[in-house]
Amino acid sequence: MTVRLLSRLGIGLAWLVLLAAAPLGVAAGDNPLLPTIVPGKGDKCVEPTDVMRRDHMEFILHQRDETMHRGIRTTRHSLKECIECHVQTDDQGNYIPINDPQQFCSSCHTYASVKMDCFQCHATTPEQK
Ligand code: HEC
Ligand code: HEC
Ligand code: HEC
Q1: Per the domain annotation, does 82 fall within a domain?
Q2: Ordered alpha helix ranges (H), the chain
Q3: Who is most buried in 14, 88, 101, 113, counting CB within 10 A?
Q4: Ligand 3 centroid vs 41 CA: distance in angstroms?
Q5: Is residue 48 part of a domain?
């Protein structure tokens, strides 16, 4: 009984450690509880990855204010650029909207219950070239 209990506990702990150790942003393999995030194009983001994980909304929300109210326009934190790098294509080579359920912007947001209205106005794919 004690042995069984311990081994059950052991399994439980191993799971906890695994879950805690799995960095948000690394493909979660077969665990359906964690978002699967495909890396963007190139080898780095516009800011360090850990900063982007935590603060990406600050950059784009902030820029929206500056862009809309003060006429400042930089491309470093442009929403269009985010999509250029983070969009995926399907088997036919067509862009998949960035806010589709399994796609970059939605993978975490669904997981974290974040709702955002940006794509009511903004394009979800790069302009077709
Ligand atoms: C009601 C329509 C609308 C909504 C909703 C909206 N935007 Fe915008 N946004 C605009 C317009 C119009 C511009 C200026 C034209 C342009 O640059 O596309 C703009 C510009 C921007 C820019 C600067 C240009 C660029 O492409 O980088 C950013 C960044 C941005 N919006 C982010 C956001 C984010 C993030 C959200 C969601 C939190 C959002 N917007 C929601 C209409 C909207
Ligand atoms: C030049 C291409 C490029 C642009 C532009 C870009 N990204 Fe990235 N982004 C990447 C790459 C590559 C990574 C993964 C880096 C790594 O693995 O360390 C990444 C990582 C991220 C992450 C962390 C994902 C994770 O694994 O947890 C977030 C969030 C993110 N980007 C959001 C954005 C947003 C929002 C924008 C627009 C302001 C943006 N990115 C613009 C290439 C880009
Ligand atoms: C690594 C996971 C992850 C990825 C990838 C990601 N987000 Fe987020 N995002 C979050 C989390 C978590 C929050 C909520 C943070 C909070 O409430 O403090 C959030 C919040 C936001 C918000 C603020 C919503 C609001 O109104 O409060 C915006 C805007 C946003 N994300 C845009 C984007 C865009 C655009 C992309 C794709 C280019 C993206 N995010 C990709 C995790 C992610």
Answers
A1: yes
A2: 2-21, 49-65, 79-86, 104-111
A3: 88
A4: 19
A5: yes
Residue 113 lies in a domain: yes
Instruction: Report the pLDDT value the prediction gives residue 67, as an integer from 0 to 100.
Output: 59
Beta carbons of 110 and 122 less than 8 angstroms apart: no
pTM, whole model, 2 decimals?
0.82
Nearest atom, ligand 1, residue 78 CA: 27
What is the C-alpha to C-alpha distance for residues 24 and 35, in angstroms, rounded to an integer? 8
How many folded domains does the chain comprise?
1
Pick the most confident of 32-41, 71-80, 89-98.
Answer: 89-98
Ligand 1: atom nearest CA of 80 is: 26
Task: Note whether residue 6 is domain-resident.
Answer: no
**Alpha-carbon separation of residue 61 from 11, 66, 73 (angstroms):** 43, 9, 13
Nearest to 86 by CA among 97, 75, 94, 76: 97
